[in-house]
Amino acid sequence: MTDQTTSTAQPDIALTTASGIPVADNQNSLSAGVRGPLLLQDFHLIEKLQHFNRERIPERVVHAKGSGAYGTFTVTHDITTHTKAKLFAAVGKVTETFVRFSTVGGEKGSADTERDPRGFAIRFYTEDGNWDLVGNNTPMFFIKDPIKFPDFVHTQKRDPQTNLKSAQMMWDFWSKAPESLHQVTMLFSDRGTPDGYRHMDGFGSHTFSLINDGGDLVWVKWHLKTKQGIKNLNAEEAGRLAGTDPDHAQRDLFNAIAQGHFPKWDVSVQLMTAEQAVAWEQNTGWNPFDLTKVWPYADFPRVPVGVLELNKNPDNYHQHVEQAAFSPANVVPGMGYSPDKMLQGRLFAYHDAQLYRVGTNHQHLDVNRPRCPVSNQQRDGQMASHNGSSARNYATVKASGSAPVGLGHGEAGWHLDGAAGRFDERGASDDFTQAGNLYRVMKPDAQDRLTSNIAGAMKDVTADVKAVQIGHFTKADPAYGAAVAQKLAALGAADAEAAKALSVVKEA
Ligand code: HEM
Whose CA is nearest to atom 29 of ligand 1? Predict the structure, then answer.
């Protein structure tokens, strides 16, 4: 593919200050004599230096490195029996979208090819406001309680003293959070290093809900299947590209769209009624709202919904991609949340992060502004470019009050029970079977790469952590644990650590 990413020559245009005043000279500061010093009245120089000092906004605390594009979502199948959301109202209906892909742990300048989940955040600009499906390229996640998220992310970032990434921190955390095993297995498989963003699937991951005209609710998981086919990099190639072309995925996406090769994904849903949710949990022991688990396709087949296409590169990266502010809290009437604890935590986290990262009025910016009318009583604050004009800035309260129905848009309320409390599910829930299923579904050569990748990443961690983690692999599948332990030994961790790890396998 030819590289379209270098700017073509542009015609000279007259330079102005940010206030539009023609600039007399952009090469020579105004100085007192040839040798200076400079004069304070050179406002152009001062404005230029001041703005430069303020060019950076904080990078996202996670998912800092990313690429984005605009596109469309087209409905191909009727799901109006399940949802009254207007974007699904008719087959053929088209909704404008914006998508941002990302890696998770690396900083803004890090390599696109690092082993990491990939973010797959989609905004649908619907007539009822923005729906943001802020998912990943994996259907599950490392943890199931948001209280662990900041600690987990710290283990993926840098050691506080050395400022280095630390395998010890990562495996220490994972070994003590066995619910992570399913996602760890996915991460160290071939899917942990996708070849760019076009060749990977996407998942809403959480359980959400759909609500129809009658107020009936069904639980839903969203899926996006790449029409380009899955393509992954092997560990060596990913490492090589990290050095030679760290922006590999950005370049690939930009070039493909610039050349008219618009990437597409088939969008589908898995559905589970409230009754099925109860029965499934009784039969399998798995909580349908546990983000570390999946709903097997055999039990809950995917129902086709539509096609997502990306067809327009943003004309300015910072304006559209860096300032994009997605939030899982943004769902539109006809959709809702679920009791998934991780989702509940995320409902708070994103808007809060963006108030800090982008600003009070981040929803006024091009990429974030809904394409439908906005009417509320929020006013003022920095950068208020859509400030409600002359509309009333307070809400009236009718004497009779308002009459919300169900959770608000006509959907029935949830039935909840149980005492309030803090519940440690480690040991009580089965964190191993689904991880084992994922291992068993891989072909032998893929299993071999998985266990080699893990052994390579674990070889320098301490013996206690190795032993516990190998115990987890073994519980998922004895062959999985044995392969990791043997490869650790072969890698020269052929010392007391490996011996201890192997003895754990034998005992299991
Ligand atoms: C409780 C758990 C989580 C918390 C507290 C959390 C928090 C955050 C925060 C604060 C950001 C930066 C937002 C911004 O500055 O714009 C972010 C970005 C992101 N998160 Fe999460 N996150 C969590 C779990 C997840 C999960 C489970 C997924 C996927 C299923 C996910 C996917 C993403 C994506 C894709 C982005 C980047 C969005 C973009 O491209 O702008 N996060 N997360």
Answer: 135
| Dist. CA 424 → ligand 1 center (Å) | 23
Amino acid at 185: T
Asked whether residue 344 is domain-assigned, the answer is: yes
pLDDT in tens, 7-58: 666 788 899 999 999 999 999 999 999 999 999 999 999 999 999 999 999 9
Compute how many other C-beta atoms are within 10 angstroms of the C-beta atom of residue 395: 7
Residue 433 phi, psi (nearest 5): -60, -45
What is the pTM assigned to this prediction? 0.95
Cβ-based burial of 53 (10 A; exposed 0-12, middle 13-18, buried ≥19): exposed
Looking at 364, 386, 407, the residue that finishes a domain is: 364
Residue 76 pLDDT greater than 70, yes or no: yes
* Residue 495 predicted with pLDDT over 90: no
Task: Name residue 68's beta-bridge partners.
Answer: 100
Dihedral sign computed on CA atoms, order 118, 337, 150, 474: negative
Does 136 contact ligand 1 (Cβ within 6 A)? yes
363 pLDDT band (50/70/90 cuts)?
A: very high
Hey, which residues are catalytic here?
Answer: 63, 136
Say if residue 137 is in the same domain as residue 109.
yes
CA 136 to ligand 1 centroid distance, Å: 9
Alpha carbon distance 380, 362 (integer Å):
12
Has residue 378 got a pLDDT over 70? yes
CA 363–ligand 1 middle distance (angstroms):
17
- What is the average per-residue pLDDT within 252-261? 98
59: number of Cβ within 10 Å: 15
* Dihedral, CA of residue 151, residue 156, residue 157 and residue 162, to nearest 10: 100
Structure tokens at 188: 């160290």
pLDDT-derived band of residue 416, with 50, 70 and 90 as boundaries? confident
Do the domain assignments include residue 9? no
The residue with tokens 């330079």 is 15
Query: How many residues are there in the chain?
Result: 508
Q: Are residues 87 and 161 in the same domain?
A: yes
